[in-house]
């Protein structure tokens, strides 16, 4: 059976081999007589699954020892509240707004702290990145927040800012939901990173938080215990029942990622090369076409989420129904942007992007 190519922004396509292995292990995980869903989170079997997942992720992302890896719940949107509850001390926090997700984060943080906009690309419709030297960072900021890949607008930081070089001592918080594990992370520039799993890591329900140890233990008194990073860290992500099956699926995905190779590289470095090649293929096709268009500045185009437009929007419905018939699913753009969006996360093979480009070329020809 060949499966269609799924371009959903999330929950998104998973590696087929991971789904197949999960199917094999569904009723009886490695002779335990139990599905992973049926295991106690404190039992030996699940503890080993969870520890292996954490170890593999630390290795894949080269997470330094002074950072803790937390498996939480609530998704990126809950983190928009949980981060200020833990890090703001009720003071001021600075936001770099580069699209819909960072905008949402600032709004939510303002319930628990004073959220200031240090920079914004709203004036150009979220199609560029304000240069870090222009950011208005306050001396009293408890942290600086940015979304390192804007899933809706297709804007990505290809390099994280060096806040120290900008004269700012506050920790950098990144929402890396939609490009986590698609490329390496420069942890020397990060205090905390969070992301929902449902794009690059596994199914929805698991939220990843990677936090520098010195940022633990400062939660506001009103912070729910289950969302206090120190409580979660002290209990090895098992203060409450963690999303066990999602952790298992993420663990299988990490093993798949470790097996990736490209040009003598492996793991995340290899997947980064594959992601570059996939994005380059689609962007160069769009840029060379009079029929399609991408509006994001070239230096900050996302390798994961590629919004594009038909210059004649009256053809949108025909484009989408033809795509569906060709086995190319979920290409409709986010309602706030319109047009189309191809999300090409780690699990999307190069062949999927080639199939999309072929379809786009054919569609254009039939419309001439
Ligand atoms: N941040 C980013 C960058 C996202 O792409 C999303 C989901 N698409 C969220 C936050 C919200 O995540 P969730 O729905 O898991 O709360």
How would you explain this protein's 3D organization?
The chain is α/β, with parallel strands linked by helices and 368 residues long. The protein folds into 2 domains: 17-257, 3-Layer(aba) Sandwich (Aspartate Aminotransferase, domain 2), CATH 3.40.640.10; 261-367, Alpha-Beta Complex (Aspartate Aminotransferase, domain 1), CATH 3.90.1150. Helices cover 33% and strands 18% of the residues. The chain has helices spanning 16-25, 44-60, 75-87, 100-109, 229-234, 244-258, 267-287, 316-325, 350-367, and strands spanning 5-6, 67-72, 92-97, 114-120, 141-147, 149-150, 155-156, 172-175, 192-196, 207-212, 261-262, 265-266, 292-293, 305-310, 328-329, 340-343. A 7-stranded mixed β-sheet has the order 2-10-9-8-5-3-4. A 3-stranded antiparallel β-sheet has the order 13-14-16, with helices on one face. Strands 1-15 form a two-stranded parallel sheet. Strand 3 (92-97), helix 4 (100-109) and strand 4 form a beta-alpha-beta unit. Helix 1 crosses helix 6 and helix 2 (44-60) packs across helix 6 (244-258). The protein is globular, with a radius of gyration of 21 Å. The two termini are 34 Å apart. The model has no long low-confidence stretch (mean pLDDT 98). It binds 4'-deoxy-4'-aminopyridoxal-5'-phosphate (PMP). Residues 10, 75-77, 101, 147, 151, 175, 177-178, 196 line the site of 4'-deoxy-4'-aminopyridoxal-5'-phosphate.
């Amino acid at each position: 059976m060949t499966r269609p190519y799924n371009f959903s922004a999330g929950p998104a396509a998973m590696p087929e081999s991971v789904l197949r292995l999960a199917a094999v292990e569904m009723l009886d995980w490695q002779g335990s007589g139990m599905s992973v869903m049926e295991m106690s989170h404190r039992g030996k079997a699940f503890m080993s699954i969870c520890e292996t997942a954490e170890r593999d992720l630390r290795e894949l992302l080269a997470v330094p020892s002074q950072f803790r890896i937390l498996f939480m719940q609530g998704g990126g949107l809950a983190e928009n509240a949980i981060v200020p509850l833990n890090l703001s001390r009720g003071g001021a926090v600075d936001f770099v707004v580069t699209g819909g997700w960072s905008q949402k984060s600032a709004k939510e943080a303002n319930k628990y702290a004073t959220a200031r906009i240090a920079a914004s690309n709203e004036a150009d419709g979220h199609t560029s990145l304000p240069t870090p030297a222009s950011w208005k960072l306050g001396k009293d900021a408890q942290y600086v927040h940015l979304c390192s890949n804007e899933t809706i607008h297709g804007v990505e930081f290809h390099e994280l800012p060096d806040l120290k070089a900008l004269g700012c001592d506050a920790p950098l918080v990144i929402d890396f939901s939609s490009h986590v594990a698609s490329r390496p992370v420069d942890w020397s520039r990060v205090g905390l990173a969070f992301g929902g799993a449902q794009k690059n890591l596994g199914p929805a329900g698991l939220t990843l938080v990677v936090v520098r140890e010195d940022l633990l233990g400062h939660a506001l008194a009103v912070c729910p215990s289950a969302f206090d990073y120190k409580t979660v860290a002290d209990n090895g992500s098992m203060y409450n029942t963690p999303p066990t099956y999602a952790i298992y699926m993420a663990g299988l995905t990490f093993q798949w990622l470790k097996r990736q190779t490209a040009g003598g590289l492996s793991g995340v470095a290899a997947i980064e090369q594959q992601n570059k090649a996939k994005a380059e293929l689609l962007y160069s096709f769009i840029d060379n076409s009079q029929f399609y268009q991408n509006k994001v500045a070239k230096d900050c185009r996302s390798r994961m989420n590629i919004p594009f437009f038909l210059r004649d929007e009256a053809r949108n419905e025909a484009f989408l129904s033809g795509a569906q018939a060709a086995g190319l699913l979920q290409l409709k753009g986010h309602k706030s942007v319109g047009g189309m969006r191809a999300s090409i996360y780690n699990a999307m093979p190069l062949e999927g992007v080639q199939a999309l480009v072929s379809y786009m070329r054919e569609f254009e020809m039939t419309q001439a």
